[in-house]
Amino acid sequence: MSIPPVPARGHSADPPTAEPRQARAPGDLLQDILCPERLKRLHLCDPGIKYDPNSFLLIFQLRHRNAEVILVPLLLLAVWYGVCVAAFAATPQSFSDQLRRIITPLNETLDPLHSVISFLLVFRLGRAALRYWDCRSATGRVVEVSRCLASEACAAAAASASRDGTVSAAMVAAREPIMRWTAAFPIAVKNFLRRSPGALCDRRAELGALLEEADTEALLATADGALFVLNRLRAAVWRFSQLLAASQPELNGMCLRALSEEVDRLTGAFGAMERIQATPLPFVYVAHVRTFLLLYLVLIALPVIAEWGAFALPGLCAMSWALLGIEAAAMECERPFQRRANHLKLGAMCVRVAQAVAQAVGDLPIGDSGVQEPPKALRLASAMPNSSSRAEL
Length: 393
Fold this sequence. Notes:
Layout: H1 26-33, H2 36-43, H3 71-90, H4 93-103, H5 106-109, H6 111-159, H7 169-193, H8 203-207, H9 213-221, H10 225-247, H11 249-278, H12 283-299, H13 301-308, H14 313-334, H15 346-363, H16 374-382
């Protein structure tokens, strides 16, 4: 049973033999994908941290440690430590000595709790790091699959050429929406994961002329733009395969299956990021860790201050910062999709996909409509200030 063609980008469906609407020239396609202003806007969505991972000098960098989430408990603990020091200092010597004999053994009592807290924090940070790596793998999979999808579509279009090397205008027009929707997909994913665009982000400028105005409006208006793009992309793949069947019937099934599988993989990568974004660690675990972490930091001060007095304050504050900092690091890495310095560079992911799609179009021209100077087109991306031709993820 034949599948009727699905309209692409808001236009009515035509049979494969009918002449499609006039498509933009391939040069315009590359210009829209690699528009410097569009790519610059995408780069502005990623604050990022620049540091040398091989240097220990980064220990002196206090910014971007997510200290704001532990500032309040850290200040309260510092006040508690000061109160304990003042209380011991104001206590008469005879009573103070007796109090020390009672409180000092508390240190041994807290040793099992110290082991439990250490295990819980290690597990907490380990799970957060694993979730961060899963998110990073998903973003890399979006780039990888987008490359394959664009390359396969361009190769199939080139293979449909007749004996004189020409490709029908219908095939040229059918390839274009696949390229455009593929380049738009990571932007839709970014917008879905980052509900708040940020002061420097202009989501309309990030799309530029990549899509038609009606599609741009619909994409920005829908709550789940990623699924919107995937549906349009799948419709474009079906239309492309139907047109391919008219010229190369033996390639139709193979091409449809290959392209559909790539769209499925894009759906899976988006689903992985969506799942992590919507699922923090269970409340019971997080609440238990924070409760006993603070309880331990409150109680451990008593025997330490009883023995060392005010000299214990620097060590206690440093230990509190260290243990609370582990919890802060876990919170920062748990769902790394926002516009924060330690989070993933989703804007760079969009740029990499755009460059990959443009290179596929440039490396696999189709007939006389092909791009004659792909390196020149690809240099559009490197023409932007403060960016390289291959964006860093």
